[in-house]
Write the structure tokens for this entry.
Amino acid sequence: MTNAILTGLMLGGMYALIAMGLTLQYGVARIMNLSYGEFLIAAAFASHWLFTGWAISPFAGLVLVVPSPSC
Amino acid sequence: MLYLALTRTRAGTAVRAVAVDPFAAQLVAINVPQASALTFALGGALVAAAGVLVSTFLTFSASSGVVFTMKALIVVVMGGVGNMLGCMIAGLALGLSEALVASYVDPGLTLAVNFALFLAVLLVKPAGLLGRATR
């Protein structure tokens, strides 16, 4: 039971983080970004390539990947 | 931290003012296109952070972005559009219900229970959990 609740909290936190970005984009900028999931997967791929190609840990790679959608 | 930035700083208050009413925000000398662009970039930065964190424990492929877009859209509309606290509550509720159904009923029903909860919330409160029906 506690296993399910903890998994649920983690999953819910992940959904909340992902949705917070879309809330900002749609609620304020009024832009319905339907390619939002693709941004997520692109960031995940970038982090994977940094890790397998240059052995940069994902948390250190955060510094490089996070400013990238703003260009 | 983002909540503090949005409520205590001047730029954060400008962003929230544009969220409430873009036309009135223009009247009080807030540069609306600039605030919109800044917020779009901020949303993009958030999703990049989420993507990096997701890559540490989830197997993903090039075509698995559609499911994330769908779930993010459900959470945004369910929490009330433009409302950060509602979005957080909706995300947590959806994640909890999905995990509970996956472990006690049937692992194949996760998407179904997501949409069922979304439908139930919209039937009771059409503007989302914490949303205002201003449009």
